[in-house]
Amino acid sequence: MRIISFLMIAFISLAVVTQNLNSQSIIERKGEARIQIGLNAYSFNNSLTEGLKGEGNGMSLFELLDFCAENNIDALDPTGYYFPGYPDVPDDEYIYEIKLRAHHLGIAISGTGVRTNFANPDPAARAADIQLVKDWIEVAAKLGAPVLRVFAGTIPDGYEDRWHEAALWTAASIKECADYGKTHGVIIGVQNHGGMLRTADQCIEMLNLIGSRWAGLVLDTYYFMTDDPYAEIEKMVPYAVNWQLKERTYGGDNYRSVELEKIMKIINRGGYRGYVPVETLQQSGRPYEPLELVPDFVRKVRNAKNAEFD
Question: 276 has which bridge partners?
Fold first, then answer.
């Protein structure tokens, strides 16, 4: 009886794993590759944070929408951090005013995002992050944001050589979020952001463990921690539900300027259709003026896009 019970458990476990692997298939897309250039609000992190505090030369998400319109940027990711009261959800009036202003300006809402660490070994901490995501799924749905970005989290101390163990509870947490997202029409976008997700293979394994069509990758061009980040990026295009296109890529011990022409060729070959938000970041030892840097980077991205897709 014990042998039979063991075999039955093993069979059920295999069936669950197989179901998960099959349910998170590569995204099926039709037609030729097509992208719209967006902006991630984190590019204006200092200004938006000061705006919430009423300090310095702060700005609001409404002003950031105006900036997008003035610079012919197609979409904005108004990240959750920059809504008043975060991590608490904003009231409906504020959400709908953002949605109204975006529509009047012809700016799409490409997504939004929250901070999470689902790799935390503490079940209570993970449960709190799951509830945070569920709350913000409802915000995303009201905004009309198709994707809510989350982080898998950092590898816990003592699990540096036990990645898969931490990945199991990380994936289970994200799966619960994806199941809730499905009920509101919101996709959970897991961003490769170092920590648990440093390579394409780790990203694919995590998505397979999650096993939901309502979860995909927010493809961060900076955070593939390998010697050939472009190979990693190309491998993940079929799983991408959104992007963060940054000015640099990680290459071994060196940080290199992104090769935008190469990125556009990868997107074209991969058949990606959707938003590609840019995100500029503060760099050590350099002045950071997003009002100048963002339009310049968007122009370079647009030129690379036109050269590849026209």
Answer: 37
